[in-house]
Design brief:
By secondary structure, this protein is an all-alpha fold. The chain folds into 3 domains: 86 residues, Orthogonal Bundle (Helix Hairpins), CATH 1.10.287.110; 93 residues, no CATH class; 75 residues, no CATH class. The C terminus is likely disordered. InterPro entries: DnaJ_domain (IPR001623), DnaJ_domain_CS (IPR018253), DNAJC25-like (IPR044632), J_dom_sf (IPR036869). One of its GO terms (cellular component) is endoplasmic reticulum membrane. It is a multi-pass membrane protein.
Amino acid sequence: MPHKQSQSWIYTCLLVSILPTLCVGLLDGLYCGKENCYDVLGVTRESSKSEIGKAYRQLARKYHPDLHRGEEAKALAEQQFKLVATAYEILRDEESRTDYDYMLDNPDAYYAHYYRYYRRRVAPKVDVRVVIVVSLTVISIIQYYSGWQRYDAAIKYFSTVPKYRNKALDIARDEIQERVHNRKGKNRKSLSKTEQKEEIERIIRKVIEEKMDVQGGYAKPTLWDVLWVQLLICPYTLFNFIAWHALWFWRYTVLKQPYGREQQLYLIRRHMGMGQHQFNSLDEKQIEEYLKLELWQRDNFVAWKADQDEDMKKKLAENPRYKAYRRYMKNHGPGRITFED
């Protein structure tokens, strides 16, 4: 009997000890822990922001570790100083103070308290929208300048190809004669050999840029190709896409209208599985040949493709290098290649 009385007395003491914490809704690990942030700063829930700041400055000076001597006194002051700083960080921010007041008013909503607290703790300090805008801007700038680098590399390459270089020299012959060889007048000095070479290269490059229609990944970049612009005009592009396909279905599927040149080229490109830039880079004579063969019709394209594949097999069969390669693969195989080979 005395044993049961002692157990009930222990349970009562434990309940009494944790009852204040349960009543006010203070949770360990959240905000000021078991302490009330208002009590830590010596203010009330009705105190203004300026009053909270004034109380914090007074307590910060009082508990600053540098103002205390002795290891024990300094350790206690440092602990209290951290608690005061934590309370001030919570109460000076309006949203954080609102969440803390909600915890005091709703002590039973444990999960909501943890969610509100850690949502604010792990939330990014920078607005996500700013990060997205900056990232898109950086990507667009890199995309634009890398496009110019590719285009410049293509022009330099064409300037070294004899076919295009000689054609550019023929077109710019008069200009080269005027600006390089026949420099007359008082203000015109004769150019050195190095300067003449540089001037000729500049003229050739200018002619190639004006006459050469570079397509594909090395095409001359424009602002319309930049990611930012593409995202801004995305609704317009999507509308055009839907309207174009709807109009195509109505004209050529429902009304059975004959295809024009543009529609024929589109069907040929789709049959070949080419992109717009890749198809545009084809030679004009080759495109005209496709139109002459009426490759926009599916049956004609299938027959033409079969003939092309058969011709390719014949050419490969007659190619000495391909024959040697096939003999090697037959006798040795890819798994037997060594450094000695």
